[in-house]
């Protein structure tokens, strides 16, 4: 099990190290109403210490930096983190960058007032451990916001979207379901405060080239989407013309939790 997890993490490091700039400029990651909602939901005091887990392009850290005293932006991939630091050089002196595994955070218990993890957890091989780690490093009453793609409850739709993501990105592990997340939150002692489940639309051309490494891989993703049955095409709102895919939608969940006192 550990060997399998380690291999997944090496794949993630390779994928994100190679495509670091794409995650900074990606419209999916750099834009979104959730970035505006983050500081509103958390209502951080000016002396707050915040943890951004798996920061990627640093967009959550950048959104929160004006609202807290210190933001620690962490990521498993050093090259990604170093690239993000360069892009955030003008975002304030209160963002600190730390190489860290989301499933083994290098911080003491009860260090942070708040923690966030945005569009990253589908790359984690052990999400239950990640949730326990987030709870461990939070102070009692601390807030945790998770934002990520989630799978539908329907098995066919779940299998389709996860196979699609894996075909495009070999570092994808799984878009987990709401039931899975809520089980792990309960086990870690979190209480749900607020949530928002929405449809997120991808521009297909931008999305597919972000992580694919060849034209053959792009064609494989194309074919998989085009071969979907009517139920799947309707649920994911796949838009195409003359066998060219324009866009599609997936489910994204933003949820805020509070650690038990």
UniProtKB/TrEMBL annotation:
> Which Pfam families does the record associate with it?
Methyltransf_11
| Swiss-Prot/TrEMBL keywords | Methyltransferase, Transferase
Query: What's the superkingdom here?
Result: Bacteria
GO BP terms: namely: methylation
Q: What residue ranges are annotated as transmembrane?
A: none
Coiled coil location: none
Q: Which GO terms describe its molecular function?
A: S-adenosylmethionine-dependent methyltransferase activity
Q: Which positions fall inside the Methyltransferase type domain?
A: 51-146
PANTHER family from the UniProt entry: METHYLTRANSFERASE (PTHR43591)
Q: What is this protein called?
A: Methyltransferase domain-containing protein
Organism the protein comes from: Neobacillus rhizophilus
């Amino acid at each position: 099990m550990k060997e399998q997890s380690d291999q997944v993490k090496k794949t993630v490091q390779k994928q994100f190290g190679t495509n670091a700039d794409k995650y900074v400029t990606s419209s999916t990651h750099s834009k979104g109403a959730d970035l505006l909602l983050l500081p509103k939901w958390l209502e951080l005091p000016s002396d707050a210490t915040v943890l951004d887990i798996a920061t990627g392009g640093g967009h959550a850290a950048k959104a929160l930096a004006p609202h807290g005293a210190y933001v620690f932006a962490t990521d498993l991939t050093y090259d990604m983190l170093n690239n993000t630091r360069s892009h955030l050089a003008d975002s304030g002196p209160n963002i600190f960058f730390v190489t860290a595994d989301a499933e083994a955070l290098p911080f003491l218990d009860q260090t942070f007032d708040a923690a966030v993890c945005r569009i990253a957890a589908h790359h984690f091989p052990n999400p239950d451990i990640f949730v326990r780690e987030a709870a461990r490093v939070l102070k009692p009453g601390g807030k945790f916001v998770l934002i990520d793609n989630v799978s539908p409850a329907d098995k066919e739709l779940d299998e389709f979207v996860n196979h699609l993501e894996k075909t495009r990105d070999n570092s994808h592990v799984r878009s987990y379901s709401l039931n899975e997340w809520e089980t792990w939150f309960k086990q870690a002692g979190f209480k749900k405060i607020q949530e928002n489940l929405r449809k997120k639309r991808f521009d297909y051309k931008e999305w597919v080239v972000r992580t694919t490494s060849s034209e053959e891989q792009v064609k494989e993703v194309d074919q998989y989407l085009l071969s979907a049955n009517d139920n799947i095409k309707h649920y994911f709102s796949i838009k195409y013309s003359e066998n060219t895919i324009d866009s599609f939608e997936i489910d994204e969940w933003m949820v805020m939790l509070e650690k038990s006192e």
